[in-house]
Fold:
Amino acid sequence: MLVNLKEILKIAEEKKIAIGCFNAPNLTCLRAVVKAAEELGRPVVLTHAQLHEDKGLVSMDEITPAMLLYAKKATVPVCVHLDHGTDIEYIRHGLELGYTSVMYDGSELPLEENIKNTKLVVEMAHAQGASVEAELGSMGARRGGFGGATEASENDTRVSIYTDPDTASEFVQTTGVDALACAFGTAHGFYADAPKLDFERISALREAMNCLPIVMHGGSGVSEEDFREVIRRGVRKINYYTYMSKAGGEAVSNKTYTQFHDVLLDAEKAMFEDVKKAISVYSNI
Structure:
């Protein structure tokens, strides 16, 4: 069942859970995620990031029809989301293709420019019933990630810029976004050390934004205990890909194959199990 992000976040708020948001840069990932969501009977978000194209993985024009097909056929609510869009015309094209949710990522821009561009995206998306997520603050980058951050080098000294609650309050009131990705101690990719999350900041953000759903990017590698705590404090959507992809890679890394389709099937099975674990934690199963 194809829905927009606002509808899915309403379910999350009512049940006090978070919805998993999973990258689908190919059919193998797409099938694994939808199968896991259907088996557990939980809503899910399928996402394509603009960065996928920069990495040469898949174009939006190629993967979007498949994402929409699987979403419409699914037995659970599925949102098809365009993630980390930094180009407004790219986002406009995504809306034309049928995305039910888009993210405008102006987190590296001056605040006024981020607000201006986000307002424009909100106007475009809401006009056709799509939802909008934005980002305020910065998740920085950690080695190995590609969920929207630039891959960091060994000597990278960039740090996350935590989201300020007062600025977040002004931002959401001015732009009219449906959800906000906030920085409170996570980053994209693999962690060198366990992340240290600022739980009090999440609560302050939640209060300042009048309970607008908070989105957590950089969810791979976070402990189950910390996931449950951020959900308790108001995180309603969690982006997850790195460890799902890692599970697929590890499943086929020590085997010898003569048929390529067997590689894909084994990787899909491993990612299916990994996604089920993630969704179970987010849904308090």
In short: The beta strands are 2-3, 19-23, 44-49, 78-85, 101-104, 131-136, 179-182, 214-216, 235-240. The first helix runs from residue 5 to 15.
